[in-house]
Design a protein that fits this description.
Number of domains: 2
Shape: elongated
Strand order of the largest sheet: 3-4-2-1-5-9-10-8
Mean pLDDT: 89
CATH class of the largest domain: Alpha Beta
CATH architecture of the largest domain: 3-Layer(aba) Sandwich
Strand content: 15-25%
Number of helices: 14
Amino acid sequence: MRQMMPERIVVKIGSSSLTSDEGGLNRERIAYFASELAALHARGTSVILVTSGAVAAGFRQVGYPARPKAVHEKQAAAAVGQALLMQAYQEAMSQYGIVAAQILLTRADFSNRKRISNALMTIEELLRLRTIPIINENDTVSTHEIVLKFGDNDYLSSLVAAMTKAGQLVMITDMDGLYTEDPRKNPEAVKIERVDQISEEIMKLAGDSGSSVGTGGMRSKIEAARIAMRGGVHAFIGKVQQPGDLALAVAGNGRGTYFDTQLDSLPMKKQWLGFHSMPKGKIIVDNGAEHALLSGGKSLLPAGIRDIEGEFHPGDVVEVVGESGETIGRGVVSYAAWQVQAAAGLSTEEVRRRVDVARIEVIHRDEWISLR
């Protein structure tokens, strides 16, 4: 099914698509992807590339016999591999008169509103200049403390797509989409062509990658698609292997699964709150409060709160969890943790009598984002 070509796309390529199982860059594959990206670029599409491959490209060069597991070893491999990766992209894209621009990001960059705003301005200027920004996680400085790891950059690609208000996120993998079962094990497995809502059933269909050089699997890609869809971005997960495959994927005729959304793009404040902020605790709510937050456009009041976890203060971000244990959203809390504990389950009148708070709403609807 053909669709209108989006003006801006984000393409994510993983390690396994760029390197051999033994490590090291596959120059032929990089040349192929450069030609596919250049074809879209020539049509006037703004292209942003999110790439993995630094660790896989560099570990052989520094003398490791296999992909390292220790953080400092990965960082050493990435320090060498990132330079090799960018050199390969620069050389391949220069054949089409395209300048490649490097941007390295960490999870901490996204959690800081000023830093991510600056990164966005840089990307916008690079696109205006008709370059192709190439984004990777800054493996050489990422730490265990930050590690919401980006899952071979699947998660990173969805954040970039939402942040830049892309029309589509294309995640390239070695599978031609999502199946009801693993088609490598069951030939009767059926491919799911389109998804308009990522349910728990869809998540259960996702398996793990068997690649020795990548860190992402189908589950991380579906999680990325969920974030993209919440940010108003359509997503595609599938194969791009033959000449013209990327253009077909973008046009709606690709070999993979399409994830469609009816939602509008989110303002940066809501994106930061939902995807980038670091929650300081949790608030557990009852079913009535969950419904009011998700369907009623209401604020969170003390009466609907059952319990809390963690230590937080007014102005901190907290996750809101339903009775089932599933996170339903995030918000900026106007109470300290001890105040929420004291007010939990009380009516508005009782809270006013018993607890000294500046406002009755624990989380105001203007400071809330649903993650359903």
